Amino acid sequence: MTVKVKVKDLSIIYDNGDGVRDVNLDIYENEILTLLGPSGCGKTTILRAIGGFNKVTQGSILIDDQEITNLEPEDRPTGMVFQGYNLWPHMSVYDNLAFGLKLRKVKKVEIKEKIKNVLDLVKLPGIEKKYPAQLSGGQQQRVAIARSILLEPAVLLLDEPFSALDAKIRQEMRLELKRIQQDLNLTVVFVTHDQEEAMSISDRIVVMDKGHISQLGTPNEIYDNPQSQYVASFIGAMNFLPTETGQTMAIRLEDVLVGPASMYEQKAEVEAIMLVGHYAILSLKTQNNQHLQSYVTRTESAKYLEGDAISYQIAKYQMYDKKEALQ
């Protein structure tokens, strides 16, 4: 795989001591790499450093083997899409899109053709004369993405671009971004705190914690084999049970198999049944007073009532030592 962006020994330290330290990261050509983590973990700090909006304390950033660490944002081969769209409200969609091309001295005829093509690409044909206030949030974000890709960046940077949208529009925008990225063979660096979003669109995910990379891998690798309890707790729903050895047992909800009281050796009582769309979550109280949750189908959940005695089996689990459990 061709490395498009190389982040080497990167440190960005703020006056209060926060930031990121000694980050090394290779971002491949034509992939969507997502920086995932809670607020303050350093994900946006890295993204803004690649875009030139954060001053680097130490280390270097290369795009296509070219050093860009000290270049101004406008001199970098990157395009940035922010959470708040950043469209000029007094300009039409056409003028918002044309602005960067005009600065590059692109001919009017070519600008018109490029804008028509990019609006077709983001499925917003014919809105050139509208103003941002006349568009929905999802439409505004599509225009913001269109504006960035019009400048043909080597790397597209997106900072929580869908977080202000409602759930249904967010899901649609994820699909649209994936389609656009594949159509144009873009290299995308995406920042989010939403694990579902990261799992759904990413080729690889970087899980961040307190300025460091906790794990880097494909969505399947991170979901199936989290290298730490922190990663396990951040990606997907998980049961955590203390053991007699002082370790912590981590079990995915789908790996807690349930059945009638006589089916499995381990016994429990149904504490609660929560319907969640097409499936349900059973909350269980085990014989030794521990609490477990299990995913079941809606059809299966109808077999149980709160207080019922059932049995269960753990199909798969991971163990984390005591030191890791306290982190």
Strand order of the largest sheet: 6-7-8-3-9-10
CATH architecture of the largest domain: 3-Layer(aba) Sandwich
Share of helix, binned: 25-40%
Task: Supply the CATH superfamily name of the largest domain.
Answer: P-loop containing nucleotide triphosphate hydrolases
Report the top-level CATH class of the largest domain: Alpha Beta
Summarize model confidence as the mean pLDDT.
Answer: 93
Strand content: 25-35%
Helix and strand sequence = EEEHEEEHHHEHEHEEHHEEEEEEHEEH
- The protein's oligomeric status is single chain
Number of strands: 18
Whole-number total of structural domains: 2
Brief write-up:
GO terms for molecular function: ABC-type quaternary ammonium compound transporting activity; ATP binding; ATP hydrolysis activity. Pfam families: ABC_tran. This protein is α+β, with helices and mostly antiparallel strands.
SSE layout:
Layout: E1 3-13, E2 19-28, E3 32-36, H1 43-51, E4 58-63, E5 66-67, E6 78-81, H2 93-103, H3 108-121, H4 137-150, E7 155-159, H5 167-184, E8 187-192, H6 195-201, E9 204-209, E10 212-217, H7 219-224, H8 229-234, E11 238-242, E12 248-252, E13 256-260, E14 266-276, E15 279-286, E16 291-297, H9 298-301, E17 309-314, E18 318-320, H10 322-326
Parallel strand pairs: 3-8, 3-9, 6-7, 7-8
Antiparallel strand pairs: 1-2, 1-4, 4-5, 9-10, 11-12, 12-18, 13-17, 14-15, 14-17, 15-16
Helix pairs in contact: 2-3, 2-4, 3-4
